């Protein structure tokens, strides 16, 4: 055996171990080609959510976002002799100078003020139904029934009831109150139409609240009752915090409905009158597009309506979230 060296057999064994380590090292450190290969099953699982969401995204882009962008672009063009030409912000300046559109914006502010009432009514009724007041099964069907009626039918019914010589004024006269011009007084007409809209549509919000109650922990209600909490305390300290996300959803959807779903009532009950006092941006858009043949100005009004709904919705969600964190 040579001095200071290894035998050929030992060197051969060491060389084999070194070669084996070099072969195994890439796999051990994850740098080999085999370790980088992703199994087909894992790759399919990663792509599955995108494949499932893709049809909905394409529909939203094709039927919502793209027409919205076209409408915004069209609002910067002219009408009549200037049809198709770029006019900048002329349409928006004309909107701000139009008394009818300013009235429509003031009415939007009125809707925002009345929004808590429109949400509180179905919320309280859903609470009573959840607490199983006597006859709650009958009330559930009765409260939802107006939601299936056409706004045209609802408007026609209330036109008869709220007429100057209608049943409501006749009943008021029996108790010594003078007749009220519910639909002909500019100071009252908008409140009347909003009240009818709330009556006709709160059934959907009621269903949403009842669905939210199904996620509420009943043990909290039982504990509150055992501690001697009154019904207002239970509603404010137990039910409202427990339904915070449901309340946020109802606030936003109710506001959108009040801004975009009152055309039928307005058309049948007041046609924007008296003196333009019941104009809303949605009704203004129809007047400019359908009667005045000014589609570019109507597009500008639609863009303003979209921005109003976006800002109001974001503000509502932020305020309600802040209130929920404080509770």
TrEMBL record:
CDD domains in the record: TM_PBP2
Cellular component GO terms, alphabetical: plasma membrane
Biological-process GO terms, alphabetical: transmembrane transport
Residue segments, region Disordered: 1-40
Broad class of where this protein is predominantly found: membrane
Compositional bias annotation for Basic residues: 30-40
Protein's membrane topology: Multi-pass membrane protein
Cellular localization per UniProt: Cell membrane
Any Pfam family hit: BPD_transp_1
PANTHER family with a match to the protein in the record: BLL4140 PROTEIN
Family under the similarity heading: Belongs to the binding-protein-dependent transport system permease family.
UniProt-recorded name of the protein: Multiple sugar transport system permease protein
Organism per entry: Nonomuraea polychroma
């Amino acid at each position: 055996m040579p001095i200071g060296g290894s035998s050929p057999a030992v060197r051969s064994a060491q060389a084999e171990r070194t070669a084996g380590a070099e072969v195994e090292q890439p796999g051990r450190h994850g740098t080999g080609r085999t370790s980088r290969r992703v199994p087909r099953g894992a790759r399919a699982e990663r792509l599955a959510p995108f494949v499932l969401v893709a049809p909905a995204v394409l529909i939203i882009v094709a039927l919502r976002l793209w027409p919205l962008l076209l409408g915004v672009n069209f609002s910067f063009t002219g009408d009549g002799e200037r049809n198709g030409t770029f006019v900048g912000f002329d349409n928006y300046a004309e909107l701000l100078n139009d008394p009818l559109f300013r009235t429509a914006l003031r009415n939007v502010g009125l809707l925002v003020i009345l929004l808590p009432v429109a949400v509180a009514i179905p919320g309280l009724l859903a609470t009573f139904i959840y607490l199983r007041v006597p006859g709650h099964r009958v009330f559930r069907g009765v409260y939802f029934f107006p939601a299936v009626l056409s706004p045209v039918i609802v408007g026609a019914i209330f036109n008869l009831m709220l007429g100057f010589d209608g049943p409501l004024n006749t009943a008021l006269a029996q108790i010594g109150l003078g007749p009220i011009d519910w639909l002909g007084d500019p100071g009252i007409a908008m409140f009347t139409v909003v009240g009818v809209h709330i009556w006709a549509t709160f059934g959907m919000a009621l269903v949403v609240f009842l669905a939210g109650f199904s996620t509420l922990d009943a043990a909290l209600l039982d504990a509150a009752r055992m501690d001697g909490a009154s019904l207002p305390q239970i509603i404010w300290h137990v039910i409202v915090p427990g339904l915070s996300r449901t309340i946020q959803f109802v606030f936003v959807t109710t506001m959108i409905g009040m801004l975009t779903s009152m055309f039928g009532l307005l058309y049948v009950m007041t046609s924007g009158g008296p003196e333009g006092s019941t104009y809303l941006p949605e009704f203004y858009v129809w007047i400019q597009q359908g009667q005045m043949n000014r589609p570019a100005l109507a597009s500008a009004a639609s863009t303003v309506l979209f921005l109003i709904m976006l800002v109001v919705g974001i503000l509502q969600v932020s305020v309600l979230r802040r209130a929920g964190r404080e509770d």
